[in-house]
């Protein structure tokens, strides 16, 4: 048991220790590593930047949630981070770094940005040092620090100024993987109460996005992580949606692992794998529809809808209950988009192959796959809401995954000239708060692409090639040929 704990702690430390980066990269990892010992007391400037950051980050003039929905889509992790920062020096270092970097970039203030990079370097050093202590490594302080360091990456780049693709997307994925390793070492039993539970809930959302980006299972997608952390807590509609989102990376991995090329496996084995994927896809779709119905009924109870009948849609209410609720709806549409478009690709490959899949064809006819196009359109038509002045940097941070999935979908399916695609690209170019989202999307698009396809997603042609690879369009074409 002790050796296993040492292994997990070492792996988490490895995820934090950023290495093999381009020395010319303007990111946090070029900041001076050697610095004088930081006082536990914050400077006046640090206190001011902290207040400015949270004022800029949190949505303002937000209509909020009704008494029915209130709490289930709130942001308790924000108060958790601030509470830990008030008494834990490492968390405070990381939070100060995030504030200085975000406000420095927002104001085009190189002095604040450089201070943020120095604080980032110190926080990274302190976190790695804490990981060598078995007691400290299990603390909420260390988990919160790693979570905030990942958050720093969201505000590190500026899509309107960067001449090159930064490493911030890859670095964000490393931090998320680090939080997963830390949570695995802590165990779900230590994520059921107080700050530990709030941090786990927040980290699980990032882990779900990371799993889909990497197209592989998250460490937090197993059965014990879906139950034990709620031993003393009520599951919210956010928790229930994350239950479905956290398994998507594993499902994408199943698609990628279908036997290829066809001549190297038995047809019966291949058909069985496809049927298992289809069965699980149908199960997830039913769960998603049940989640939607539950949310619509909550909106009826709040007086927002007259009825939750078949004509009621989330598009009717998505902007009526604050940005936390809006983010859930955008995630819901994103899950549908990825789930159904990937299934369509598999079915296209099956139809174009020589597999005699009579039984599978009957199953597909009985369980038709929904069209992914309406979900992409919903995201494209509503993503501007993330960048309204009242959305704050919260909107900028959370726009990344829904917009990435949708832009990649349009690019991979030959719709890079569609009005929806052009609208999203224009938003990223022209809206000031979208500068952070733009830089992050350009960076993270590179991560899953093979070396020969890595490019600049601001170039439509290069984005199309990277998107086709991520979505598996090129794989489907190769399998069918």
From TrEMBL:
InterPro entries in the record: Fun_TF, Osmoadaptation_assoc
PANTHER family: TRANSCRIPTION FACTOR DOMAIN-CONTAINING PROTEIN-RELATED, ZN(2)-C6 FUNGAL-TYPE DOMAIN-CONTAINING PROTEIN-RELATED
Identification of the protein by name: Transcription factor domain-containing protein
Organism field: Friedmanniomyces endolithicus
């Amino acid at each position: 048991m002790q050796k296993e704990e040492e292994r997990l702690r070492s792996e988490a430390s490895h995820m934090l220790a950023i290495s093999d980066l381009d020395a010319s990269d303007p990111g946090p990892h070029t900041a001076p590593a050697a610095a004088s010992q930081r006082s536990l007391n914050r400077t006046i400037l640090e206190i001011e930047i902290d207040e400015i950051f949270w004022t800029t980050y949190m949505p303002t003039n937000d209509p909020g949630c009704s008494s029915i929905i209130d709490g289930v889509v709130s942001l308790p992790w924000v108060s958790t981070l601030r509470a830990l920062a008030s008494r834990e020096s490492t968390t405070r270092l990381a939070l100060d770094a995030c504030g200085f970097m975000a406000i420095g970039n927002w104001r085009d203030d190189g002095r604040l940005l450089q201070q943020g990079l120095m604080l980032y370097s110190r926080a990274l050093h302190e976190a790695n040092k804490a990981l060598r202590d078995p007691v400290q490594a299990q603390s909420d302080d260390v988990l919160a620090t790693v979570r905030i360091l990942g958050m720093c990456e969201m505000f590190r780049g500026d899509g309107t100024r960067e001449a090159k693709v930064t490493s911030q997307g890859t670095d964000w994925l490393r931090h998320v993987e680090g939080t997963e390793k830390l949570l695995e070492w802590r165990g779900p039993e230590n994520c059921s109460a107080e700050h530990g539970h709030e941090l786990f809930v927040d980290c699980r959302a990032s882990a779900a996005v990371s799993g889909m980006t990497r197209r592989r299972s998250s460490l937090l997608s197993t059965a014990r992580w879906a139950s034990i952390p709620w031993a003393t807590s009520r599951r919210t509609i956010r928790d229930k949606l994350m239950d479905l989102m956290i398994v998507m990376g594993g499902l994408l991995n199943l698609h990628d692992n279908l036997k290829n090329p066809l001549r190297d496996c038995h047809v019966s084995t291949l058909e069985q794998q496809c049927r298992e994927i289809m069965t699980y896809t149908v199960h997830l779709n039913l769960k998603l529809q049940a989640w939607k119905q539950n949310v619509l009924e909550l909106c009826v109870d709040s007086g927002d809808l007259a009825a939750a009948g078949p004509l009621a849609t989330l598009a009717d209410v998505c902007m009526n209950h604050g940005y936390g609720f809006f983010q859930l709806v955008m995630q819901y549409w994103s899950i549908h988009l990825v789930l159904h478009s990937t299934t369509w690709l598999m079915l296209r490959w099956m139809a174009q192959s020589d597999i005699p899949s009579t039984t599978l064809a009957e199953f597909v006819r009985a369980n038709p796959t929904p069209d992914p196009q309406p979900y992409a359109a919903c995201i494209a038509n509503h993503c501007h809401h993330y960048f309204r002045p009242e959305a704050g940097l919260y909107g900028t941070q959370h726009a990344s995954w829904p917009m990435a999935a949708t832009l990649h979908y349009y690019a991979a399916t030959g719709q890079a000239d569609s009005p929806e695609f052009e609208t999203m690209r224009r938003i990223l170019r022209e809206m000031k708060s979208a500068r952070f989202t733009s830089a992050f999307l350009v960076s993270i698009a590179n991560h899953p692409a093979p070396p020969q396809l890595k490019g600049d997603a601001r170039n439509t042609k290069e984005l199309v090639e990277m998107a086709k690879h991520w979505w598996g369009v090129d794989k489907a074409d190769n399998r069918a040929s």
